[in-house]
């Protein structure tokens, strides 16, 4: 794995009025790795994603992609720069087919021409095991397939950094294993991934490193087994007293 830094967050903070959601969180994400983010509800995980993708602005600190500061860039420009993301609750264009959802992402998110988009999206559908659902209205897909579509739409923008927000939530063990296999294939293609997840076994099966947040502060970061064995993580995240 290359040790070149793709994403760098330095002392990132966010407050909504008097409520502090994140406080001086710093971390690096290396090209080609999977960084898993853990933390109880309200820890600030999704707020962190929203600041990386540009949905909200930090109250303080600095976020860089490939050394380029993102503070002034709106979400659509960050997408063109190579940041793709999924949402915890899938957000397909329900009146469009699965394939049409991908075409929108490829053309407007990835900046591809119509001719380029068709061939590229067909390959993404195959990669995400959705080729047989290409003409299915996205609003009628099963939960697993909606999550696959959420992933496929992010991939259709051809990201170099993929932000996954609890994509394993609500799935059966078998469906979760299928999703983990898909995330592995994405990682093996060289896409850098930051993954927020409560389904711990899914995250542990893929992540190279873990970071844990609690009440907006980083309390642990490192190799997965080291982090899970951390007494503070056990207490905060698993409810286990050391």
TrEMBL record:
Assigned keywords, A-Z: ATP-binding, Nucleotide-binding, Transport
Report the InterPro entries cross-referenced here.
AAA+_ATPase, ABC_AA/LPS_Transport, ABC_transporter-like_ATP-bd, BCA_ABC_TP_C, P-loop_NTPase
What are the record's GO terms for cellular component?
A: plasma membrane
GO function terms (MF aspect): ATP binding; ATP hydrolysis activity; L-isoleucine transmembrane transporter activity; L-phenylalanine transmembrane transporter activity; L-valine transmembrane transporter activity
Cite the ABC transporter domain residue spans from the record.
7-240
Keyword DNA-binding listed: no
Q: Which GO terms describe its biological process?
A: D-alanine transmembrane transport; L-alanine transport; L-isoleucine import across plasma membrane; L-valine import across plasma membrane
Q: Which SUPFAM superfamilies match?
A: P-loop containing nucleoside triphosphate hydrolases (SSF52540)
Question: Do you know which PANTHER family this protein is assigned to?
Answer: AMINO ACID ABC TRANSPORTER ATP-BINDING PROTEIN, CONSERVED COMPONENT OF ABC TRANSPORTER FOR NATURAL AMINO ACIDS-RELATED
State the protein's name: ABC transporter ATP-binding protein
Q: Which organism is it from?
A: Pseudotabrizicola algicola
The top of its lineage is: Bacteria, Pseudomonadati, Pseudomonadota, Alphaproteobacteria, Rhodobacterales
